[in-house]
Amino acid sequence: MMGNLSTLNPAELWPLLPELVMAAGAFALLVVDLFVSPRRVGIVHALGLVLVLAVAALCVAGSGGHGIVLNGMFVRDTLADLLKGGILLTTALAFVYAWPFLRERGLYKGEVTLLLLFAALGMMLLVSAGSRWPRACCCSACR
Predict the structure, then answer these.
(1) What gap in Å lies between CA 130 and CA 100, rounded to an integer?
(2) Paired residues of 76 in beta bridges
(3) Is there a contact between 127 and 80 (Cβ–Cβ < 8 Å)?
(4) Interval 14-67: pLDDT, tens
(5) How many CB atoms are located within 10 Å of the residue 113 CB?
(6) Measured distance CA(56)–CA(52) in Å, rounded
(7) Where do runs of H (alpha helix) occur along the chain?
(8) What is d(CA 121, CA 52) in angstroms, rounded to the nearest whole number?
(9) What's the pLDDT tens digit per position in 80-126?
(10) Which of its termini does the chain have fewer beta carbons within 10 Å around, N or C?
(11) Residue ranges of the domains in the chain?
């Protein structure tokens, strides 16, 4: 399943499904936020919360399957799914608590939602990051 990056088969990217859904959804909300009036930013916030919960469901359900892709740079296993579920549930709590706090003070902007989504996406990618150092080292001590 580990192929060369120059001959990447798109079918090998199924383990990246939750991250790809999160990235696509965040970019879609970025475009939606451009066209929503300032009085209706709650729509973007609600859609962001729905996106986080949908991606959490994908992770918990194991959608896309487990595996190692991109030459070992991305590893998806049960522990990664568990940690991603925790990250996404914490992000959902941040969505719930941030809304009334920022709205009452007039500080809420659509970018808050996007910042939370992209921060969660970055944490999800870091959880699945595969260490390449031991395999890339060519010294005799590591063999």
Answers:
(1) 38
(2) 67
(3) yes
(4) 999 999 999 999 999 999 989 988 788 889 999 999 999 999 999 999 888 888
(5) 28
(6) 6
(7) 17-35, 41-61, 78-104, 110-127, 133-136
(8) 10
(9) 999 999 999 999 999 999 888 888 887 777 788 999 999 999 999 99
(10) C
(11) 14-136
Which position has the token pair 């939750």? 18
The amino acid occupying position 30 is L
| Residues composing the chain | 143
| Tokens coding 77 | 């296993």
Place of tokens 């009085």: 39
Task: Indicate the SS3 state at residue 35.
Answer: helix
Q: Compute the distance between CA of residue 83 and CA of residue 89 in angstroms, rounded to an integer.
A: 10
Helix pair angle (41-61, 110-127), 10° resolution: 20
CA distance 120 to 91: 7
Cα–Cα distance between 99 and 108 in angstroms, integer? 7
Q: Using alpha carbons, select from 129, 114, 95, 128 the residue that is nearest to residue 23.
A: 114
Token representation of residue 138: 């060519």
